[in-house]
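Sample entry (609 residues):
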Amino acid sequence: MNSGNIKKIPYGKQNWEDVRLDNFYYVDKTRFIAEIEASNEYFFFIRPRRFGKSLLINMLRQYYDLRKADLFERLFGNLWIGQHPTPTHNKYLVLYLNFSLISGGIEGYEASLNSHCLTKMESFCRRYADLLPENTLEELRKKETARAMIDYLNTIVADAGHQIYLFIDEYDHFTNSILANPATESAYKAQTHGTGAFREFFNALKGGSDSAIKRLFVTGVSPVTMDDLTSGFNIGTNYTTNKKFNAMVGFTEQEVRDMIDYYRQFYTFNHTTDELIELMKPWYDNYCFAVECVDESPLYNSDMVLYFLYNYIDNGGNIPENMLDANIRTDYNKLRMLIRKDQGFELPSAQGGAFLGKNASIIQYIVETGTITAVLKDHFPSEGITDPDNFISLLYYFGMLSIAGRGGLRGVKFRIPNQVVREQVYGYLEKAYKEYGLSMNERQRRIFMENMALYGDWRSYFEEIARTLRLYASQRDRLKGEAFVHGFTLAQTCLTDLYLPASELDAGPKSVVYGQDSVVEVGGYADIYLQPRLGVYPDIAHSYVIELKYLPGRATDADVARAREKAIDQLTRYAKAVAIERTYKPTTLHRLVLLWRGMELAVAEEIPE
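Predicted structure, serialized as tokens:
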């Protein structure tokens, strides 16, 4: 798909030297190097998976490695940092550790850690052999533990008059074990507490901070492990939510536009740049990692943008049928396993139905209202993962929530950033319902949705949802009320690739205090616009705006009638929204009111224009 001097799309690329020397397109993030140097020398940075952290680290390695001094002009010359180089470029011996490569489970972690560190440090010794004592490699191989190895290197390099820049990518990779399987908790604590191998290794890094290890750059996807290491390693600074580094990875909208404009010069594009931005934005955009940056350009997931452009160009300017990269899907499946701990549902509280005692209830609440507010924790121990604030913070670190502003006196308001994440959240919630004994047949659901799209037969589908709720929901489930009914209806309705579901069109939530520190938003109603994906499925003939209402089982017929009239009024206003008017044509737009009374679908009505 590429020829001549056209820059290749760096989809999946993590090697900076390849990107620069093999003519790949690069969004210049080198301006952040000066900011990093002005920060704490032990730099800790969290971002979701598939967001560009590894390429960032690789770029920094090439910039600081004294062995790459002769390549500086080719690698950086026409970039921001090439025009504004710092005095320390190409001045360090670079040591790189990638803890995602450590094999084996938590029980065998110590041996795997030692093996990985030995392999990387052997490479380090060979790379800088002429700068180190002659027997350095042989002496290193006599060391049995990762701590002993790093202690040895630190001493040898310092004595030789050099300094180390140490990079650790995915430092918390093995944390997945404890989050996914509580049975491994004792083994996890053995590694991170007392004289555990992982803790001892970071103790050695702390000791090296006044010797050869001049700078340290650590990435991960959560602060859980670092919290468990705090008393042994308390010299690093977490810059995850610092506004200066909000856009250090990921793409701004202008960066995405510039990339589209570049490639449209050489390839067939059947859409304008504005059309492609409008198409990609609901799927890949709306990430924010600092409260102070809420009013700035939100960030696109860089991996997903590159995936889309690669496939769009490869398909001759046609929209990819699957907007979700299979690699992202795999990562989110892993995340689903991580958040299964304490996954059950809880009964609503007396404060309006938003009881956040179980993780599945939190997910259900976010799906229903679109937002949630909590205190953002920059560290928390593994055993506290089920605390509501900690769990919500974990969802943020994993990229399943994005900062939407301030909430309450001490809180941060979060939202689901885009459809890629929303699809995974709906999928998680649907599986949680299934494990709770409440499910629909997947093939049957797909047929129902196709009948809705092709023939406008919506009634059969929602009557099937009502039948499923009546058959499978236990008496305890029936008490869960609005959040449970809405959550199940939303999860089932939005798990489709025929439509781009947009929910919470006008939730209008109110706030109540939860606990001592958190504020959660309750009282809104979940509304759905099923926007047809006509660019992929041009035969779709019907689209839908749906107003969901819920009344308790004891509601009277008069209550139902009043709620119906209110729903019709809201639905009429929603259906005239600019986003809907612009995107549903040429399909027939159906305006539906679905009103539940307990588990009964009391009103299932189409409202004419």
